Fold these 4 entries.
Entry 1:
Amino acid sequence: MSDNFLREIDEEVRRDQAADLWKKYGNLIIVLLALLVAGVGVWRFWQYRQDQAAQAVSARLETALKASRESRGEEAEKTLAELAREGAGGYALVARFRFAAEAARRDPADGAKAFDALSSDVAIEATFRDLARIRSAMLKVDLAPYAEIKASLEPLAGATGIWRHTARELLGVSALKAANMDDAGRWFDQIVVDREAPQALRQRADLYLALVRAGPVDVK
């Protein structure tokens, strides 16, 4: 009976304490709960608007890609240029890359300029800037001298570069076109001995090396 009596007293004290706390802080608790509910509502509304905006941008991007597939290049370029200016985050970046690729279909030099603009934009992650440099070099390999290609791609051809395989092949092809057999052989050798290089690329490098060993061809 003594234990029960003590428990009843303890519960009564707790009820009194809770009542005192509610009298003292009840209004504050109500305000905080209201703010929490309002905050959740605002966040959900913002998330809904973001989802709607993302769906709209995605639809416009698909429209541009469809125009490209149907050889309506001018329409595709216009939409992609708008998305590159107005889009946010990843969509804008995708639009810029696609715009450069679309421009390259019309004029390789214009495409290279668009990729160069991407490669020099410090607001873009370095990996994507390097990819843009690779894409530009692909277009320039038949247009620009070896010295220009080398200055652009040599920093990407190191042993740990994620784009090194493509960079080395482009460097080798450019050197081969310039009849610089020493540099061409060096770049293709690096592909062949790199165990991480794709097998198809190593086979191509072997064919290129056969051309290097044959030496320049004199055309009279």
Entry 2:
Amino acid sequence: MQQSREGLLIIISGPSGVGKGTVCKALMERNPNMRFSVSCTTRPPRPGEVDGLHYFFKTRDEFLQMVQEGAFLEHMQVFGNHYYGTPRAYVEQQRASGFDILLDIDVHGAMHVKSACPDAVTIFLAPPSMSSLKTRLVGRGTETVEAIEKRFEESFHELRYMKDYDYVVSNDVLDIAIGQVEHIIAAERLRVCRNQAFIESFQVKGEDGE
């Protein structure tokens, strides 16, 4: 069956420490037709970062002008400082070219994107338990005890949004979780609403008279 040429918009969210980055990296490596969404930001480039590859770097005025023009699927200001946003045009262009777009964003950004793009596929990556999540946060060894506690508390808030997602995947065993996400993507490509051209082809009498 010939699939719809337009790519999927896939949103993955979950609490800090649940393994979103690892899952997204594996999906990108295993699915050559997938692209990671490139965000706009007002922060200056870090050494080695390339405009249009890692971020679209904008001045504050340019970013705010884009906000006024409705150019973002979602945007936010981090700690009252720099702005970040998902550019609508980039996502639409990539999807129109047949690429699946992967977004790793928080629950608030995900709900904004879902509102702007109702056909987006939303997946919440959850820990097998809160105790295992805390163990992972501590095991990273990159933050203070206070920072870990803050992230852990934020996780309870984020987990309340699970019911608003299309799918929930427990990241207990990494390979299984990655496989489940890939199964979701495969099933989404088979949805009737994404295969209208194929369905309509049966409404036209073929050359063989069938």
Entry 3:
Amino acid sequence: MTLSPDRVSPSTVFLEARESYQKQSWRNRACILAGDGVQMLQVPVVHAGSMLISEVQVDWSTPWLVRTQRALDAAYYTSAYYEYYRDDLFAVMDRRPALLWDWNLSLIRFILDKTGLACRFVPTESFTAPGTVPDDYRYVLHPKRPDTVLRDLGLEKPYYQVFSDRFGFTPGLSALDLLFNEGPDAVLWLKRLA
């Protein structure tokens, strides 16, 4: 990953498109903070044995999208900026792409666009073994392991969250949490991490 200090020259991020899909990973999950605590949202996928991450199909046979949108409404309706982003976000979600890869890319692009970050994605053409390139974060974070990366690096910086009066600051949530609570200032919060 090559980071750019401004919008003029976009950052370049290499996305691993040639790895085998890993079940129970962040590739089809995200966490939000709801009134009763952290809630995991999950995109169901069609399991067809071993397949590349870029070939995994989203399972549209259940009404999970409606449940996800209702969960977002319940969790963020009172946040400062949710109403400004909700319709655009739901329009992205309602496109219902066939592939998980396309779903993830469309949501990443939405978040980058709304935060004002410029980024160029480059899908890998062959599998890159872990540890062979610098700044390789593919296997650092996993839902089954504690996430202490930002704290360990001294980069965990709280921001206002809707239910912080009940739970305090809750790290490790979806970037949507930052966007809905900080709005246009989300990019300033991200820059403070650098």
Entry 4:
Amino acid sequence: MGSTIAFANQKGGVAKTTTVHSLGDAFVELGKNVLLVDLDPQACLTYAMGIDPEALESTMHDVFAGRVQTKDVVVELDSGPSLLPSSIDLAGAEVHLLTKTGREFVLARALKPLVGHYDYLLVDCGPSLGILTINGLTAADLVAIPFQCDTLSHRGVGQLLETVADVRAFTNDDLEILGGVATLFDGRTRLAHEVLAAVEEQYGLHVLPPPIPKSVRVAEAPGKGRSVLAHAKSSKPALAYRELASTIASKV
């Protein structure tokens, strides 16, 4: 049975998508069968994997609308993980779901037939705490919290932990916190180290090693439809994501 891990932080720009994409590739390098789930209407993960959402016949929007089976939406790639793609139409699913009974459980039901086929299902939640993110957390076994080592991102961690507590109380009492993922880390600055320490001290959130260093290589990769592991395999961020994948694999 595969493990479903949601990556969530309602603050944008904290490298959630980069982390999901890079870990997906790193797990494949470890010999794992991996499915990535793009739950963001901006479809950044879908674009980053070199796929044009507008060219797809169906996406996660159609799954949420009940028009297709989840297995028929999976995009198999020549190398790397498989993908359940998103599109801008997914934004309409939020409105649609608000009128539905059991709306928090739609993704969990949709993924259930696929879980046994993959070692890891990694869910890229959008930068909000709306119904799509609640679906991601409800469907997950574990949640990882990427955060940038700055003051505003630090505040977002506390807000997300409150949401996780609500999800545990109402829709998924088995949800466990895997840990934090420190991204865009600049080890030369005092602030980065202070925020890293403060997150663990203030929120009791274990930060999974290692911190992911900031690098232009990470910013370049999505434009080429690749993760940083494929774009710059020997770069410091690529090496860090491989180490992070090994850390997670040892725990899950």
